[in-house]
Every structure is written in structure tokens, then in C-alpha cells.
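Lab meeting tomorrow. Look over both lines:
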Amino acid sequence: MTGEWAGTILGELIKAGDAHLQTGPFGTALKAAEYSAEGVPLISVGEVRQGHFEVSDKTPRVSKETTKRLPKFILEIGDIVFGRKGGIDRNAIVHPQQQGWFLGSDGIRLRLSEKYSSLFFSYQMRSPATRAWLLQNCEGTTMPSLNQQILGRVPIVLPPITEQKAIAHILGALDNKIELNRRMNVTLEAMARALFQSWFVDFDPVRAKLDGCEPARLDAYTAALFPAYFQDSPLGHIPQGWEISTIGTKLSTVLGGTPSREKPEYWTGGTVAWINSGKTNEFRITAPSEMITREALENSSTKLLPRRTTVLAITGATLGQVSITEIECCANQSVVAIPASEEFPTEFIYPWIQENIEKLISSQTGGAQQHINKGNVNELVLLCPDHQVMNAYLTKAKPLFDQIAANCFQSRTLATLRDALLPKLVSGELRTRPSTTLVQGEAF
């Protein structure tokens, strides 16, 4: 069916004036001294994810003066940004709220004329066939690199513009729902975090009683569970009657392991989920890194972890990353797991580890590669609230954690559907219906 669509290379669109590539500023054009904590984000390969940008507090920014001096690097709605080094098979499209961001030195920007749908092109460049082409034709081995000449040779198909927009609409609708779930989870996580902070870090209900006030936003029954005084402890002042212990005293910790790679039968046809430390970068872990067999589980040091277990990366690039498993799984030796107990639910353990992660990192050992060991985790101080307060907290926090998990699983299902549809739609194997309606504002 693709025979009905014109096939060409991106370079032909560039020659016709319907596409333009721009590499980010090199050398003295933009000096590191011009980076600042304020201004517009500087978009390089580190900010480009598959289909979206990920900007954090660590993302460099540039001032308005810099953008005025170098206007050709200002990003506009519909621009497609590629990473120039490393993750060269990724691209993200600039949405209205990102207009005015600035192209970094490790980025390449593609801008299309109105004859074409930028969103369709972004999806086409994310198709398995195009990603494979980019990885096969890039320069470098240890560090893949991309340039304008390579991008100019990328094979593309050109359906009619109505078909481009229809395909972009279908795939975009799935991505929009995934993004909505992500934003909802950010809000839910902030709500859970604020509750934990108020009760177990700032001790707001106790402080209110000390001041002769009723604790804010608490019903009378819950407010009555909190004492009216503090006591001294190794953590400083804590609510009267509460205790201080350690993670290792109150909870079991589990160091992961890796079944022998010399036995391929351990890694073929498995039914047991297994994760590496890279998965701790994920907000919630809803899928494994790999699957192993039951025999592999029984003949290695890895252990099966229950669903909703707090996991912590203890070495490497992910050192200090904390996540929650939402599936039953095993982990590798770069992960320490802290399964919940009846006394201490994950809804408490997870934010407690997050709150104290800097203490753990400061206790790290090792030479060339720093790491936290299981003993460091066991020795971490642990606040032990009154059990009735813990139950009241769980009543409020668990629904938030449950909804976060549900959103993550739904987003994974939607992403799987999108990834299955993408190559079929882009190649023309699967056609859209003529009646497909477009949402206003999806023109790019």
C-alpha cells in the first residue's frame, strides 16, 4: 500500500525549500558562561525524550539577551528536535507552551513548511524502521552522532496532507492521554508528599496543638491521635510517644542478584519479571527489564519481591534513585529493596527513603565507583509513629498511590497501542478512515 505514497529523502524537501535543518550553536557562539538558572530552557540531547521534552532544575537556561543575539536558534511551534550525540534516534516536537525555548549545541532542529504535518513527521522519525536507519547510518560507535548530512539522507514517505494529519491525530490522541496521566500523577504525588511532609517531617498537627490551635484540615478524630508535646530523639524533636529505630531493625532489606548469563536457558521463555537498576529512573515500575525462568530464580541470589516494594539504586549512574515496583519482580545486585510490613507500608517507606536519600548518599563508599551498600540502608534512622496515626495516614495516602499506579498501567497500555499502530499507520499498511476528525489546533 505504500506504493500509493510518494517516497523520497528528507534532503529533497530541503532542496525544495519545504524543510530546513539547524544545528545548535557551536564553540564561541554560545559560551557556558552564558548559561544561567533563569531564562528559557536550553534544549540539547539530555532534554529530548521519545516524543517529548523533559526539562528539570538541572536543565541550563539562557537569558532573553542571548536569545535576541542568536535568534536562529529559537524554537518555534512544530519544530522537531533531534539529539546530535548519544540518543540520536529520539526526537521531540515543540508544542505551544514550549515556543521560545532555545536549541542547545547537542541538538538539531527540523522545521517544515505548512505543506507537511510536523507531528506526522515526528512520528515517522520515531517509527522502528527510521530509528533503525538512524542507528545504522550514524557516525561513531561508542558515542553515536548525527549531523545534517545524515538526516538529509533519511528515507521518508509523503502521504497526502489530509492523511498525515489524520495519522498525527490518532497517535497524538494517545500521547495526549498519556501526558494527561503524567500530569495527574505529578499532582497526586505532590499531594501524597505534602501529607507525609506535614505529618512526619514538619509535625504540623503537633505544632498546632502546642500553639493552642486545632490542626488544620484534620477532622476531630484524626487530630486527637496526635500528641500535644514533643520529646528529644536522635532526629531532634519528635512527637511524644513516638519512637526512633532503624530500617534494618524494623524491616527486611533485600539485595538483588543476576542469574548466570552463561546459561541462556535462564533467560529464555521465562515467566518471572526481573529488573535492573535503570528501572529505578521510572516513576513507577510497571514492566520488567527482562524475564527469567523459575529455575534462574531458584539458582541465583535474586529474590522475588512483592508488588509495591520500595527499590533503591545503590551504584552507577542511577545511584540514589528511588522507585516503587507495581509488579511482582526480582532485581539485580545494584538494587536494594525494602518490602513493606504490616507496621510500615510502602506509602510510608517510599517517601521516608526519599526524604533521607541525601543521608544515604553521604554514607556511600567505594573508590572509582561510589556506591551505597545494604548495610547503609539498614542503618538508616527510621521514625516510628503511633500505629493509629500510621493507619490514619494510610487511609489518606493509599488511594493516591493506587490512582498513580492505575494511571501508570493505563499509560503503558496506551503506549503499547501507539507503538503497535505507529509503523502500520506511517507505512500505509493501516489506513485511516476518511471521516477521521481533527481537533482544532492540531495543524502542526
Q: What stands out?
A: Residues 387-427 form the longest helix (41 residues). The two ends are 25 Å apart (CA to CA). The mean pLDDT is 94.
